[in-house]
Design a protein that fits this description.
It is a single chain. The protein has a two-stranded antiparallel sheet. About 55% of the residues are buried. The chain is mostly helical. Helices cover about 65% and strands about 0% of the residues.
C-alpha cells in the first residue's frame, strides 16, 4: 500500500487554508441593519384593544397540530426526488467520470452506501440527530427514538407525518457519504468503503446534522443552513479530501491520461441531480407554501447562472467550453444555493450561482494543482469549496439590500457572517479530524487501498467479478 509521506502535511495545510478562509468572514467590513418588522404588522398593532379582546378570549389555550394533506403529498414527492438524485443520479454522474474498468465499482459503492445508511438511520441515526440529547444536546441527540420507537402513523412533525420526515432526512443522510465516494474513486477496497461509511455517518454526519438542524449549539448560535451547505456539502467535501490525501494518488495519475469514459452518462446524471435537487431544497421547507415557491425560483436561477459562469471562465482560460464543464457548473450552483435558498432573493441567487461557477472552477483546477492531491472526481473542489462559498454567501445575500429575507432581530450582516464562518470552521475541523481517525481505523481493520495489480486491472472485475461493457 502506497501512502505519500507528505500526505498528512498536505492535508493539514489545506484544512488550515480553508479554515482561515471560512473565518475571514469575521473581518468583513460591510454591515447591515437588522430586518424591520413587515409593514403589514403595523396596522395590526394599531388595531383597537376592544376588537382584539374577543379574538384573544376565543383563542385556544394551545395550538393543536393538524396534518396538511397538500404538504404531506409534496413531501413524499420531494423525498422520492432526493432518492432520484442518489440512485441513479449521483451514481451515473460519478460512473461516467471514471474509467470504464471502474464503472461498476462506483455504481456499487453509491448504491450500497445508500442502502447501508438507510438501515443505520432507522436504527439510531434519526434519534441521535433529531431528539434531545440531555447534557450532550449541544453536540448529539439521544436514543429516545432509536429503532423509530414511539413514532406512529398519526405522529406529526409540523404538518406532515413524522414517518415522512424520517425518510426525507434519511435521504440526506444517505447521499452525503455517497458524495465522498468521488474523492477516493478507483482505488479503495469495497470492504473498506462499507466500514468507513458506517463509521462516518455515525461520528461525522449525525453530530453535524444535530448541531445545525437538531437543536445543537450551531443552531443556538443562529447558523443558517436551509438544506445542507455545511451538513451535507462541506461535511462530505472535507471527508473526501482527507481520504484522497491518505490513500495517495491513483497509479499513473499525472503521467497517463485518465479521461471520463462516458460523458453522456455524466450529463444524464447531472440532469437527474438538477431535477432531484428541487426535492432536496424545496422539500426542506417541509411545507407547500410561499417560501417553498421562493426556494424553487432560487434553486433554478442559481444553477443556471453557475452553468454560465463555469462555461465562460473555462472558455476564456482554456479556449473552448465543454459538456463536462457545464455539468460541473450545474452541480456547483446547486451546492452553493443549498444553504441559502430559503434566505436569499432571486437576484441574490443569480449572484451566488455566478460566483459558484467561477470559484469552483478554480477549486478543481488551480487549488487542486497547487496542492497536488488526487481528488478523483473533484468532491472537495465542487462540494467543499461550493459549500463554503454558499454558507458564507448566505450571511451576506440574505440581507434585504440584496432582496433577501433579512436578519433575525438584533443581528447584523457582520454578526450573521461571523456565525456562518463559525459553522463552516466547526464542520471542517470536526469532520476533518474524525475522518482522519476513521480512515486509520479502517486501514488497520481491513486495509484501505486495493493492491496494485487489482487497481491496474480495474475494480469492476477484481472486486465484483463483473464488467460494465461487453464490447
Amino acid at each position: 500500500m502506497r501512502y505519500r509521506e507528505n500526505g498528512m502535511k498536505k492535508f493539514l495545510t489545506i484544512v488550515a487554508l480553508f479554515g482561515a478562509l471560512s473565518l475571514a468572514g469575521v473581518t468583513a467590513q460591510a454591515q447591515d441593519k437588522p430586518a424591520e418588522q413587515p409593514a403589514a404588522a403595523a396596522p395590526a398593532a394599531a388595531a383597537p384593544a376592544a376588537a382584539a379582546a374577543p379574538a384573544a378570549a376565543a383563542a385556544p389555550a394551545a395550538e393543536v397540530k393538524k396534518l396538511d394533506a397538500g404538504s404531506t403529498g409534496w413531501m413524499i414527492t420531494a423525498t422520492v426526488l432526493v432518492m432520484l438524485m442518489t440512485i441513479p443520479g449521483l451514481a451515473l454522474f460519478y460512473g461516467g467520470l471514471v474509467r470504464a474498468k471502474n464503472m461498476l465499482s462506483v455504481l456499487m459503492q453509491v448504491f450500497v452506501t445508500f442502502s447501508l445508511v438507510s438501515i443505520l438511520w432507522a436504527v439510531y441515526g434519526y434519534s441521535l440527530a433529531f431528539t434531545d440529547g440531555g447534557s450532550l444536546n449541544s453536540i448529539i441527540g439521544g436514543m429516545g427514538k432509536a429503532f423509530l420507537s414511539g413514532i406512529k402513523p398519526d405522529t406529526l412533525n409540523g404538518v406532515i407525518p413524522e414517518y415522512v420526515f424520517v425518510v426525507f432526512q434519511l435521504t440526506f443522510a444517505a447521499i452525503t457519504p455517497a458524495l465522498i465516494v468521488g474523492g477516493f474513486a478507483e482505488r479503495m477496497k469495497f470492504s473498506a468503503v462499507l466500514w468507513f461509511m458506517a463509521l462516518w455517518v455515525t461520528f461525522c454526519y449525525v453530530p453535524i446534522a444535530h448541531m445545525v438542524w437538531g437543536g445543537g449549539f450551531l443552531a443556538g448560535l443562529g447558523a443558517k443552513d436551509f438544506a445542507g451547505g455545511t451538513v451535507v456539502h462541506v461535511n462530505a467535501g472535507i471527508a473526501a479530501l482527507v481520504g484522497c490525501v491518505m490513500l495517495g494518488k491513483r497509479i499513473g495519475y499525472g503521467k497517463e491520461a485518465m479521461p471520463p469514459h462516458n460523458l453522456t452518462l455524466t450529463m444524464v446524471g447531472a440532469s437527474l441531480l438538477w431535477v432531484g435537487w428541487f426535492g432536496f431544497n424545496v422539500g426542506s421547507e417541509l411545507a407547500a407554501d410561499g417560501i417553498a415557491g421562493m426556494v424553487l425560483v432560487n434553486t433554478q436561477l442559481a444553477t443556471a447562472a453557475a452553468v454560465l459562469g463555469w462555461m465562460f471562465i473555462e472558455w476564456m482560460t482554456r479556449g473552448r467550453p465543454t459538456m463536462l464543464g457545464a455539468a460541473s457548473g450545474a452541480v456547483a450552483g446547486l451546492v452553493a444555493i443549498t444553504p441559502a435558498c430559503g434566505f436569499v432573493g432571486p437576484m441574490g441567487s443569480i449572484i451566488l450561482g455566478l460566483a459558484a461557477g467561477v470559484v469552483c472552477f478554480w477549486g478543481v483546477s488551480g487549488l487542486k494543482s497547487m496542492f497536488g492531491y488526487d481528488d478523483s472526481l473533484d468532491v472537495f473542489g465542487v462540494h467543499g469549496v461550493g459549500g463554503i462559498l454558499g454558507a458564507l454567501g448566505t450571511g451576506i445575500l440574505m440581507s434585504e439590500s440584496f432582496g433577501g429575507v433579512g436578519y433575525d432581530k438584533g443581528v447584523t450582516m457582520i454578526g450573521q457572517l461571523t456565525t456562518q464562518a463559525i459553522a463552516v470552521g466547526v464542520t471542517l475541523v470536526w469532520t476533518g479530524i474524525i475522518s482522519f481517525i476513521l480512515y486509520k481505523i479502517v486501514d488497520m481493520m481491513v486495509g484501505l487501498r486495493a493492491e496494485e495489480n487489482i487497481e491496474r486491472e480495474g475494480l469492476d472485475s477484481t472486486q465484483h467479478g463483473e464488467v460494465a461493457y461487453h464490447l
